[in-house]
């Protein structure tokens, strides 16, 4: 009886140990799932990459007749845009500022889902009750020609409402004999070719680096090494200043150029940081802004930023992978949900306005 009882006890203990191990494994899996969801949800929602595209907008002679024209859009290169549900790429809206000052949406035909590099699309007047402005990829009829005058075409990111393209074109044809203004629109700012990155940041600790892995605390970088990064918003080696680095096409495989702020970050203080590369400004193509004010600028070439290596990384307490090392350039702080990139130059007024709006 004693031996049998001892065997039962031993068996019960073994089963309890197995159950205990299984519970620990299940608990670890649950914790890992929660942490992964929190991290990827935070990082994924934080970085919003604005689509880039180069579009040529011009007058199109319907049937070869210069007195019957529509608007032609040609997608030279860049990202694919979705024009409606079911399309590929980022969803975008196309709007028109008409010759009489009114504002209208351009509606894609049901078969036109996306706007891709190398593709032509056309904006014309469509019959209906009421009539409307339509977008199609098929040849047009003369009955679809537009009234004469100046049209401004805007392509807008439907999710972030960021203006991606704005161009004006003059159409030949009959002028509207009874112009009416149905909607007024503030003129869109002029966006020069280049690049902008912006965000709000706040340190949770004294920014001073206490070890090598905390040097050059990264906010966001497109790349994973000095030799392939396209841009890099970070801090200097001791985290005493903000730093904005860029690499242009002319720079090739080099590490690029960088400039520093004059502001030194402090613990528990929110800062609005913006880095700008302006291809049209020979004096200060490379700029860094803190709290809406440009603090430093430098000359650079006008060749444009080099191609993205598609290795976007957002800074965190766990650091990033850079120059072959993991968990380096750690940033122990927080960022608002305002980390954005633009494939054009935000104006000084826009940067000041974004700062004035306050952190999220």
Topology:
Blueprint: H1 2-46, E1 48-49, E2 53-61, E3 69-78, E4 81-82, E5 90-97, E6 103-108, E7 114-115, E8 120-126, E9 132-136, E10 149-157, E11 163-171, E12 193-203, E13 218-222, E14 231-235, E15 242-246, E16 257-260, E17 271-278, E18 286-290, E19 293-298, E20 312-314, E21 320-322, E22 325-328, E23 333-335, E24 340-344, H2 348-356
Parallel strand pairs: 1-24, 4-5, 6-9
Antiparallel strand pairs: 2-3, 3-8, 4-7, 5-6, 5-10, 8-9, 10-11, 12-17, 12-23, 12-24, 13-14, 13-20, 14-15, 15-16, 17-18, 18-19, 21-22
Write up this protein.
By secondary structure, this protein is an alpha+beta fold. The protein folds into 2 domains: 53-171, Immunoglobulin-like (Sandwich), CATH 2.60.40; 193-356, Jelly Rolls (Sandwich), CATH 2.60.120. 15% of the residues lie in helices and 38% in strands. It contains 2 helices and 24 strands. Strands 2, 3, 4, 5, 6, 7, 8, 9, 10 and 11 form a 10-stranded mixed β-sheet that branches. Mean pLDDT is 84; it is low at 35-47 and 175-186.
């Amino acid at each position: 009886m004693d031996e049998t009882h001892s065997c039962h006890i031993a068996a019960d203990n073994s089963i309890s140990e197995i159950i205990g191990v299984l519970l620990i494994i299940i608990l670890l899996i649950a914790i890992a799932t929660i942490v992964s969801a929190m991290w990827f949800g935070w990082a994924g929602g934080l970085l919003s990459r604005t689509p880039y595209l180069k579009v040529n907008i011009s007058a199109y002679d319907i049937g070869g007749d210069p007195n019957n024209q529509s608007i032609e859009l040609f997608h030279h290169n860049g990202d694919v845009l979705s024009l409606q549900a079911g399309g590929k790429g980022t969803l975008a809206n196309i709007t028109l500022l008409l010759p009489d000052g009114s504002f209208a949406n351009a509606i894609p035909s049901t078969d036109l889902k996306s706007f891709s590099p190398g593709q032509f699309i056309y904006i014309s007047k469509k019959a209906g009750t009421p009539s409307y402005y339509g977008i199609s990829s098929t040849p047009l009829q003369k009955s679809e020609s537009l009234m004469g005058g100046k049209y401004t075409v805007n392509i807008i990111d439907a999710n972030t409402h960021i203006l991606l393209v704005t161009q004006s074109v003059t159409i030949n044809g009959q002028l509207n004999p009874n112009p009416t203004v149905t909607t007024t629109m503030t003129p869109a700012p002029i966006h020069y070719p280049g690049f902008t990155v912006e965000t709000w940041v706040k340190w949770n600790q004294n920014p001073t680096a206490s070890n090598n892995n905390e040097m050059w605390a990264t906010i966001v970088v497109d790349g994973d090494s000095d030799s392939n990064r396209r841009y890099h918003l970070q801090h200097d080696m001791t985290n005493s200043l903000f730093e904005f680095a860029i690499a242009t096409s002319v720079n090739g495989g080099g590490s690029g150029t960088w400039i520093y702020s004059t502001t030194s970050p402090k613990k528990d203080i929110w800062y609005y940081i913006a880095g700008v590369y302006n291809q049209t400004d020979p004096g200060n193509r490379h700029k860094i802004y803190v709290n809406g004010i440009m603090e430093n600028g430098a000359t650079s070439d006008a060749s444009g930023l080099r191609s993205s290596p598609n290795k976007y990384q957002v800074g965190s307490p766990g650091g990033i992978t850079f120059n072959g090392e993991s968990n380096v350039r750690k940033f122990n702080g927080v960022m608002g949900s305002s980390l954005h990139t633009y494939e054009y130059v935000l104006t000084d007024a826009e940067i000041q306005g974004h700062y004035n709006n306050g952190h999220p």
